[in-house]
């Protein structure tokens, strides 16, 4: 079981990390580089000193892009280990694990780690108005854990009380509320911030569905070979 988990997670996570990095280079990195120009004052989007909104962005950087590729692979290998370990626990309870069900696991991972936190605390570009990072991290982790537990209760629970508990867990972090600054202000245009949030969630969804599908596929292959 242990070797099956490690092998499936490494293969699925590494492949997903490469694809996620390519998607990041195409869709997210240009927005980040654009936002950094506003953060540093190179561009200004309001007032008399307003400048153009379509600057020439930095091109390929071997160090920056190489490290992004490496860290993307490492991050998704880590995600893969957690996801495949959960799949293994479900398989012990008789759940079917293959590429199709893996897709559902990937969607659940996206909802827990990306979508649910973003409902109240969306991805933020450099230069935005922020509050205490520790408070945001605590709220983010609490939301991710509560959502993951809620999805597990929905998927594997049978009693109505479990469904009720799942709904309560889904709502609780947002009823408590995410930490936000008292005033929303910053040099980055809100249009750029919304584009970043949308693309970050889109890339996250693509990566997690791929991770789940590959994890299920490699799990099936390892089981057949074992």
Structure description:
- With 226 residues, the protein is mostly helical.
- The protein has one domain (2-130, 181-225).
- 74% of the residues lie in helices and 0% in strands.
- The protein is built from 6 helices and no strands.
- The chain has helices spanning 2-39, 62-92, 99-120, 133-156, 160-176, 190-225.
- Helix 1 runs antiparallel to helix 2 (62-92) and helix 2 (62-92) crosses helix 6.
Keywords:
mainly alpha, 6 helices, single chain, 226 residues, 74% helix
Number of domains: 1
Helix count, DSSP H or I runs of 4 or more residues = 6
Q: N-to-C SSE series?
A: HHHHHH
User: What would the average pLDDT be, to the nearest integer?
Assistant: 87
Mind summarizing the main beta sheet?
none
Q: Report the span from N to C terminus.
A: 10 Å
Helical fraction = over 70%
Task: State Rg.
Answer: 20 Å
Global morphology: flat
Number of strands: 0
Residue runs with pLDDT of under 50 for 5 or more positions: none
Structural class computed from helices and strand pairing = mainly alpha
Range of strand content: under 5%
